[in-house]
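Same chain as my last thread, 260 residues:
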Amino acid sequence: MEIQLLGKRTLVTGANSGIGKAIALALAAAGSDVALNYVVNPQAAQEIAERIQGQGVRALQLKADVSDPQAVSAMFAKVEQSWGGVDLLVNNAGIDGKRALSWEVDLAAWRKVLEVNLFGAFYCAREALKGMVTRKSGVVLNISSVHERIPWHGYSAYATAKAGLSMLTKTLAQEAASHGVRVLALAPGAVKTPISQSVWSDPQALSDLLTKIPYGRMGDPDEIARMVVTLLSDAASYVTGTTVFVDGGMTLYPSFEHGG
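reply #2:
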């Protein structure tokens, strides 16, 4: 079955690098117009927009910090003015934050991770749902992480934000279901992106990471993007309020593979 999103209008946050970039390009290949949200590196956003337009669909570049609710409102207003709204939202923007034990962490830095990863997803979903609920159609897809389930030593803010995003997804899905709108999440595992280069470019660090992945390799951004397109499409029309893990088995707790 060929997955298509012809005529759809999609906003992707954090779209100018890594997983977000792969998602944006895959959406365009499936026929969707794509609005690219970014905070830094406008040149990268411009290059991706040109590639999207090369697929015969529209691209829109939107600079906005998703942790700022006023900036988010202005971003959605621009999409409304340009395209008449969005049919699909991918909440991808996120940061890891600096590694620190909870009793040593800088509180402002800890708070910023939640403001981007959790509050930002809520601000964007809130704006998108206003139109989707009125039209009785649409999908919100939150990019979570295996760390919504697996604790991450030194990254309490990140794990907390992703766990919160899981319950936010369920609650928004419950609220929106009777209006014909789906809300769900996708949780990647270890994916080979520029942000994780310090791990996959270090043989020792990579070897240690692979012991945590039963499938024996890191994921590719395109593998995440293909699943995103599927979940946004009518192929997943009965899927809502859940997290789909795309992690090579990382959440199977591979250390127990040979017994407890």
